[in-house]
Design a protein that fits this description.
This protein has 6 helices and 7 strands; from the N terminus they run H-H-E-E-H-E-E-H-E-H-H-E-E. With 212 residues, it is α/β, with parallel strands linked by helices. The structure holds S-adenosylmethionine (SAM).
Length: 212
């Protein structure tokens, strides 16, 4: 993997910034998205490891990748504290160091907004998934309201700086569909209020996409 500079302050404050959302709606979301992961599981962009405690016995083996060295160190600590073994590797979603068709499930929560190249990342997800395997995702996406979407476009440079490269305006469900995965389940929600800065990261989407 190319040397990644990382976002020291974003990583240092991430768990504190997200704590109230984690105690609220995110705990349920993680229990559904990670908790339903089966077989050999790959989590991309694991961050500080917020999903690690949500994997169940359905997941035979969990591998997690995270490219940012500061996030990675925090994920290592959470992995060491987790009740189950989590194998961690420092890698990007665009260049997954795994053989073709090696996972039953890929988990992505709040990651496809941050990757440099969503199309390449999803082509890697398709490559490493077995036929019939699932991408289980939860992401914030581009607004379907044209005025709000335009606002997201205008705010993008500032938001990317503030949120360590996150894109507030990506039409991620379309990108997942265009990757060749079949979107089998999709549910939209607006769990954060329509006030700054949350207004930029609405709506959210939870779903399952299958490799045919
Ligand atoms: C908003 S955080 C989400 C972290 C975690 N998935 C969660 O649910 O809390 C976005 C994460 O994506 C990671 N990321 C950024 N670019 C990436 C890439 N190209 N491949 C994989 N992960 C990436 C970031 O380092 C960060 O940890």
């Amino acid at each position: 993997m190319a040397d990644v500079k990382g976002h020291r302050w974003f990583a240092a404050t991430y768990d504190r910034l997200t704590a109230s959302g984690e105690r609220g709606f995110m705990a349920t979301i993680r229990a559904e998205v990670a908790g339903g992961a089966q077989g050999r599981v790959l989590e991309i962009g694991a961050g500080t490891g917020a999903n690690f405690s949500h994997y169940t016995s359905l997941a035979e083996h969990v591998t997690a990748v995270e490219p940012d060295p500061y996030m990675y160190r925090r994920a290592e600590r959470h992995a060491a504290e987790a009740a189950r073994h989590i194998e961690l590797q420092q890698a990007s979603a665009e260049d997954l160091p795994f053989a073709d068709e090696s996972f039953d499930t890929v988990v992505s929560t709040l990651v496809l907004c941050s990757v440099s190249d969503p199309e390449k990342s999803l082509s890697e997800v398709v490559r490493v998934l077995k036929h019939g395997g699932q991408l289980r995702f939860y992401e914030h996406i581009r607004s379907s309201n044209p005025v709000s979407a335009r606002f997201q476009d205008i705010a993008l440079p500032v938001w990317r700086w503030f949120a360590a490269g996150c894109h507030c305006n990506r039409d991620t469900v379309t990108t997942i569909r265009e990757s060749g995965l079949e979107v089998a389940e999709v549910a939209y929600s607006t769990p954060v209020p329509p006030v700054p800065p949350f207004i930029l990261v609405r709506p959210h989407v939870k779903g399952i996409a299958i490799r045919g």
